[in-house]
Amino acid sequence: MDRRTAGRQPDAPWEPSPRRDSVPADDDAREQWFRDLAHQATVFGLPIVWQHALLQREAAERPMSTFSHERDLARPGFAAFRVPNVDTLYSSAWIDLTSGPVDVCLPDFGDRYFTVQLLDAASNTQNISRRTIGAARRIRLVSPESPGSPDVPDEDGVVTMPVGSPVTWALMRIQVGTHDLAEVRALQDAVALVPLGGPSVLTVEPAAGDVEDDADAFLTTLDSALRLQGHRLEETALVMRLRQLAAIDDEPARRGVERGYREALALLDASRPLLGTRTGSGWTRVADKGRHGYNYLNRAVMNFVGLAANVVDENTSFNTYVDEHGVRLDGRAGASYRLVLDPPPTTDAFWSVTLYEASTGHLWDAPEGRYSVGSLSGGRDTSAGDSITISHERPAGGTWLPAPAGEFFLVLRVYSPGPDVVSGDWIPAPVRPVRPAGSTR
């Protein structure tokens, strides 16, 4: 070996410098720089931040790896997330895998529909359901990032399921039928989470503020979430670039961050129609739910509209804000609409149509609590051609879905959908105006 090179180490050109990257010195350029960074951070980070803010709130209320059960169906004012269904009881848990695996132990649900949806930090989804695990009753959740996992032997009848984040959101849904709330509540209580590494010792930082309206709170929460949950290796360059947002120390930078954050939220709001594939009948078939990969705009819009959308194999959904002529759905001034699903969607479980206020994504406070109609509320799975009237005023007869005196949208959910629904071969019929707004009888 040449003595002149002995003991020398080759350069490592991609080893990060300890020095923070430069930012423009000119005020206008500096504002634009941070505006662009904040816009990127908002689109990339929205599902991460909004979900982590929910974790922060709920971790302050109950231990990790413990279910909290909604004992009644969602109603107006439901605060956990937007666009909830009114077909199932929800249960929510944040499962901590940082100390080792956690077993999910299930009761016998019989023929009743259920799923335990598992969401990673960026809202990518897996399901524990009859579709994915068959008759298995014990599912072992494991995380590759879990340090010090106990040596847990394989057991007969245990299904091992790797998940995407050290802390995973489990959202359980159990079908509610007619007059069986007590039975469904008992099933909720029978689902057990068993940490094999002992009780959780994880500390979750308190919420930084209103992440839906405060740029500083949003960015602080994004930093907390990424430090807790990590990120994909392929996202390292993006995450490192966004760390420049820690250098906000002057007025031009703060103006840029605020502008970028507000403009990104406005973009997401305007992009609601991009949620899926237009069917040609006014409905949009919501696509790629829970399978976002690196489609950051798609996943941000999806979560901006409502957290915890499930994959199409488990729950295929359609939404529409317009009638068959492309006119916004609006219940004011005597407007009335009719929806006829003939044939109805094929399903191994059931389907429903639910109405929400367009401005908020929340349930409207409808008379008689009629927020939804479907195959469990009138037998339309066996009565092809039956129609749904959607109006502010009660119709003379038939199935009525009450609408507010204002703009609204509809979501059609098909649980355990048939192959023609999953493939897109079946699409819902258009919403037809019977009386347009402002007409007289």
UniProtKB/TrEMBL annotation:
UniProt cross-references to Pfam families, sorted A to Z: DUF1214, DUF1254
Region feature Disordered, mapped onto this chain: 1-26
DUF1254 domain sequence ranges: 66-195
Coiled-coil spans in chain: none
Domain of life: Bacteria
Annotated organism of origin: Aeromicrobium endophyticum
InterPro entries: DUF1214, DUF1214_C_sf, DUF1254, DUF1254_sf
Protein name listed in UniProt: DUF1254 domain-containing protein
Residue span, DUF1214 domain: 315-418
